[in-house]
């Protein structure tokens, strides 16, 4: 999906949310805003994904603030909380089998997509302690479009699956789903970001929650881009997108990229995410924030 | 009040809301966004009121779109609806007297402050038909800070009052309050905008709802600025601000300007409005949108 009119204010709002949490000196804050507005004046268009613009304004933030990993402590707490929730979910899944178990874990992996600083409560200002209850509520909401059965059949027919992750914390629930995928497929490749941006999980985060214990391989998706990037993806990701039988992608930013990239790959693409805004929800006939398990 | 960090995204969001409703050609839309971002890159700071920046991006919109009066039809409908609601409110106030009647009309004038394209439902996308019910709900909410009694005493001691209006539609309820003020004071001067911006009422709007029937005089507050402007107010407004015993100002943008201008005037300033955002509500110890009748 390419940027729409509404994305113009959302990009600025995302940057403002991040700045609000970082409490930088007013002069630094203003310099970041100045450069971000200048970048948007030169580059904002409807011919790139929203994630491209968000990536760029957050890079301006990192460069000018000289903070290489914004929200470091928050990111770590999210991973720890994710692991605790995953333990509980694992227990709850104990007596489930086949499609029922698969669907249960897919739904939890989607509920965990809410673990995004941008969209939880007041933007970046989340209380990590509330997360457990909040994710249970998301799980209880169910899926507005539920193609888990179709996805289950596709998984069983796909010897190689590429799994593209989204947020810190959420990856602990992805780990449970990947463990399940491995019962039905030979190879699952986990793709993670090379650098931090908002709450997106990096290779390092993947290792922290132990994704390497369940995935066949962890690969670098590219640098610090919001979701995978059409312009900056790594050769490794590009090659895997071409050679995989199925892609499972988490999060809205990965949906942006893959809905544009779909015609270039042979494998099926399943997107598991909770939408963040009306422009995306309306594509699926919804409003507000909705949970989706869809095959593109 | 001067602009805060959060205002950066709100300014863009307000412009996007207006663009969304106008459905311009994509090229025109992008040109407006480009120029607005460029203006904000050059000028956004924490040393001017938020309304200055909103005024400027809306002027960019009007100039590039070549639409001199955006939302013309919507503005007219708002005035018509305001007049109908005012008739009903007038009937309901029939048996009230003194402070009780004054408070009732103040509260309705504040409830009517919700008649702002920027903040009603999905930004500019209001359904005029819903307005009546919505305003009743706002009235029922009551005031978070209620200094109507203090304002009533000040009114009785002030031979000359300057009334600074805010939105179309809302001015029909202001008319009822001014009629009431005239029972306790000799002169009420109504100040209105010289040109259209978002939903702010112009001199022409004032005449349409018959403000001249109750006010001693209608004056031009300045050109097409969001609320009154510290930089662009008319000589007439500046003079009246200096010579009046009391100022009654409607709306958040007029609060921005008058809270900065307060030290320069001798008269008391009462602000009657419904807040639009947390940065302003938090000044008064609230959150979300709250109704206020305060003496600055």
From TrEMBL, chains A, B:
Residues 6-285 form the Damage-control phosphatase ARMT1-like metal-binding domain. It comes from the Bacteria. Pfam families: ARMT1-like_dom. InterPro entries: ARMT-1-like_metal-bd_sf, ARMT1-like_metal-bd, PH1575-like. Gene3D superfamilies: Uncharacterised protein PF01937, DUF89, domain 1 (1.10.8.380), Uncharacterised protein PF01937, DUF89, domain 2 (1.10.285.20), Uncharacterised protein PF01937, DUF89, domain 3 (3.40.50.10880). This is Damage-control phosphatase ARMT1-like metal-binding domain-containing protein. It comes from Aerophobetes bacterium.
């Amino acid at each position: 999906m390419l940027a729409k009119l509404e994305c113009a204010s959302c990009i600025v709002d995302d940057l403002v949310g991040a700045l609000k949490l970082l409490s930088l000196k007013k002069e630094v804050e203003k310099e970041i805003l100045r450069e971000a507005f200048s970048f948007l004046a030169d580059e904002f268009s409807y011919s790139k994904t929203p994630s491209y613009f968000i990536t760029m304004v957050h890079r301006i933030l990192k460069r000018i603030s000289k903070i290489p990993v914004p929200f470091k402590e928050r990111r770590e707490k999210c991973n720890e909380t994710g692991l605790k929730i995953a333990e509980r979910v694992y227990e709850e899944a104990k007596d489930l089998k086949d499609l029922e178990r698969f669907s249960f874990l897919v739904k939890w992996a989607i509920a965990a997509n809410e673990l995004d600083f941008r969209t939880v409560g007041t933007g970046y200002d989340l209380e990590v302690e509330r997360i457990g209850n909040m994710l249970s509520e998301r799980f209880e909401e169910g899926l507005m479009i539920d193609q888990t059965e179709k996805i289950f059949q596709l998984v069983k027919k796909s010897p190689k699956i590429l799994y593209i992750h989204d947020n810190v914390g959420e990856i602990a629930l992805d780990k449970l789903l990947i463990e399940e995928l491995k019962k039905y497929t030979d190879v699952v490749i986990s793709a993670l970001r090379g650098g931090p941006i908002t709450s997106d999980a990096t290779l390092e985060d993947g290792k922290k929650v132990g994704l390497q214990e369940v995935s066949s391989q962890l690969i670098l998706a590219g640098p610090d881009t919001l979701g995978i990037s059409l312009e900056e993806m790594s050769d490794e990701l590009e090659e895997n997108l071409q050679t995989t039988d199925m892609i499972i992608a988490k999060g809205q930013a990965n949906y942006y990229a893959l809905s544009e990239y779909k015609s270039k790959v042979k494998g099926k693409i399943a997107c598991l995410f909770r939408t963040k805004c009306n422009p995306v929800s309306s594509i699926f006939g919804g409003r507000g924030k909705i949970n989706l398990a869809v095959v593109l």
